């Protein structure tokens, strides 16, 4: 599955609200890895919230910052990376992540996602009159990208800790396959 790749990081991809940041933090703790959240790095570097970047500079500017960060990630070791939900929709980003990380996609239904993101205003793409329709449309458009992940994990019916433990197990299996 993971062939000749050099897997020393773990990348969590998936739609908004699937738990990438919480699961990533827990997984990093369990593995004694560093945790990095691409949205947080971008916010720290620009001194702006994601919503401000979208509102003031537009989505393409944000995607440019994501691509630049993805290039830098190739130099990381022993890091759990939680990515922004749209980051793997760029093929080059996904290909780059796969050169150094096991890519795990966290999955949830549109209804479960809506439940989890309800009331969060920091997600500019979901500030819409009909967020469920937007989630369905975006998820359908992105599903082929998310399916490129090495492992797909359904996050419904499992606690965040269970998801994190499962993800860590998958990482160790991928590493032992290569020895
Ligand atoms: C986005 C997801 C967000 C953030 C930005 C765009 C997307 O990250 O990067 O609002 O395109 O799905 P989370 O998935 O961490 O919410």
The major pleated sheet works out as:
5 strands, parallel
- H/E series: EHEHHHEHEHHEH
Approximate shape: globular
Strand content: 5-15%
Q: Assign a percent range to the helix content.
A: 40-55%
Could you please describe the fold and organization of this structure?
The chain is α/β, with parallel strands linked by helices. The chain is built from eight helices and five strands, in the order βαβαααβαβααβα. A five-stranded parallel β-sheet has the order 2-3-1-4-5. The two termini are 13 Å apart. Shikimate-3-phosphate binds at residues 16, 20, 39, 50, 84-86, 123-125.
Task: Set out the fold topology.
Layout: E1 9-14, H1 20-31, E2 34-37, H2 38-46, H3 50-57, H4 59-73, E3 79-82, H5 91-100, E4 101-107, H6 110-117, H7 131-146, E5 151-154, H8 160-177
Parallel strand pairs: 1-3, 1-4, 2-3, 4-5
Helix pairs in contact: 1-8, 2-4, 3-4, 4-5, 6-7
The structure holds shikimate-3-phosphate (S3P).
Shikimate-3-phosphate binds near residues 39, 50 and 86.
Based on the model shown, name its key terms.
179 residues, 8 helices, binds shikimate-3-phosphate, alpha/beta
Short note summarizing the structure:
The chain is of the alpha/beta class. It has helices at 20-31, 38-46, 50-57, 59-73, 91-100, 110-117, 131-146, 160-177; strands spanning 9-14, 34-37, 79-82, 101-107, 151-154.
